[in-house]
Amino acid sequence: MKHTEIRVEHLKFGSLVKWSIYVTLSAGIILGLLFSVLSLVGFEVEATLNGEQLTGVQQILFLLFVTPIMILLLGIFSSIILYLPMRLVLKIKKGISLKGLFVVEVSEKNENKAVEQESNLNT
């Protein structure tokens, strides 16, 4: 598989939120696992729920499930706040280059626009 480079000049709000969901959920899962393992091997990891200190299995389950959810909510909230500044940066920098394996899906509506734009360039 060949990696290609694309240039993103505009990103829709829903796409930014979707990207943030994947990134922050992944980070939350890793941190939840890390904190659970650290708790198992004897490091002091503190987890409280309604002022009550959790220990043992309750603490591990809390860390495994609540940490990813909390980080996910923080990521969604951050993406909502950072959308307009991100658009401004993309406009100033004239986009951002990304490298990777991309699949481009073109809807019929967008395909017609692309054909119109090509014909306008050729005339």
Widest beta sheet: strand line-up:
1-4
From the N-terminal CA to the C-terminal CA, the straight-line distance is 36 Å
> How would a crystallographer describe the biggest sheet?
2 strands, antiparallel
Count of helical segments? 3
* SSE string, helices as H and strands as E: EHEEHEH
Helix and strand composition category: mainly alpha
Q: What is the CA-atom radius of gyration, in angstroms? A: 22 Å
The gross shape turns out to be elongated
Share in helix: 55-70%
Share in β-strands: 5-15%
Write down how many β-strands occur, each being a DSSP E stretch of 2 or more residues.
4
Which stretches are poorly predicted, pLDDT < 50 over at least 5 residues? Answer: none
Return the domain count.
Answer: 1
Q: Overall pLDDT, averaged?
A: 82
Keywords: Membrane, Transmembrane, Transmembrane helix
Give the topology.
Blueprint: E1 4-8, H1 13-40, E2 48-49, E3 52-53, H2 56-93, E4 96-100, H3 108-122
Antiparallel strand pairs: 1-4, 2-3
Describe the 3D structure:
Keywords: Membrane, Transmembrane, Transmembrane helix. The chain crosses the membrane at residues 21-40, 60-84. The chain is mostly helical and 123 residues long. It has one domain. Helix content is 66%, strand content 11%. It has 3 helices and 4 strands, in the order βαββαβα. It has helices at residues 13-40, 56-93, 108-122, and strands at 4-8, 48-49, 52-53, 96-100. The strands form 2 sheets. It has a two-stranded antiparallel ribbon. A two-stranded antiparallel sheet has the order 2-3. β2 (48-49) and β3 form a beta hairpin. α1 (13-40) packs antiparallel against α2 (56-93). The model has no long low-confidence stretch (mean pLDDT 82).
